[in-house]
Amino acid sequence: MSTSDAVLIGVGYALFVPLIWIIGNLFTKWVIDRAVDELVPTPKTALPATQEGETSVTPVAAIPSDQHQVQGGRADAEMRELKAGRVIGVLERLLIVTGLVLGKWEVLVAVIALKTVARYQELDTKLNAEYFLIGSLASVLWAVATSVALLLYDQSVGFGLFPAALLK
């Protein structure tokens, strides 16, 4: 094998990082957005009527991002939480892919358990629990699909670095 072939194969391995990170975030966000459209009324849909004197509150997920108003730093805190969630998603996908390509399914269970314990308090409401579950499952699905693709690449074109236990 020539040096240029080895470099191209190495570049092929490197392309899995943005696949896990960037495309994984986009896929997870796309799945969540589709689910939120079903779970949360959008501004086009009338919210339920309120009793006299009550105010109707539209969930932040239902408000287009350009219409978010900062009230006491609330929108800023929500944006930080959203960014933290994306970083957590990337790290969980990296851990899952690493575990799966090495044939260690336990990593998948550990990541899900850790994430659930960390977010346990927020899962009190049905909407939060569903949102959490949808995002987690979409992220795990992407990590498993990427793991299979990486193993197929490794076994067919790559250097055969990883055990093919997941493919058997």
UniProtKB/TrEMBL annotation:
Transmembrane domains' residue ranges: 6-27, 90-112, 132-153
Name this polypeptide is given: MAPEG family protein
Keywords (A to Z) from UniProt: Membrane, Transmembrane, Transmembrane helix
Organism: Roseibium polysiphoniae
